[in-house]
Amino acid sequence: MELDIKVDRSEGLCVIALVGEVDVYTAPQLKERLVESIEGGCVNILVDLEQVGFIDSSGLGVLVGGLRRVKENSGAIRLVCSRENILKIFRITGLDKVFPIFDTLERALEF
Q: What is the rounded end-to-end Cα distance, in angstroms, of the chain?
């Protein structure tokens, strides 16, 4: 499966919408786009996982690495996800305590 990545930037916020699977094969694409966004001055990032069917440890690692980078500039990464199979992975790994996770894009944008 492939991963489609769309980045929308406005007023210091980048929304990165993912469609597909984030795994060992597609995680490097996500890392590249995340690093591009951060180096381009975006320190507040919202990652939309609503259309992600699967994420593995390499995908989680990319998100954690991105979080480290934005925190160096007092930024944050928030996630949008209401899919139980993806949320379960964040709960099992304890990353639900690291990343603020919202059930809708609208709620994440209000934060």
A: 32
Residue in the structure block whose two tokens are 């094969």: 25
Residues 78-109 pLDDT 10s:
999 999 999 999 999 999 999 999 999 999 98
For the chain, the domain total comes to 1
Full-model pTM: 0.95
Tokens for 40, please give them. Answer: 């381009």
CATH code, 70: 3.30.750.24
Residue 111, in any domain of the structure: no
Q: How far is the C-alpha of 25 from the C-alpha of 3, rounded, in Å?
A: 9
**Residue 110, domain member (yes or no):** no
- Identify the CA nearest to 56 among candidates 83, 24, 104, 100: 24
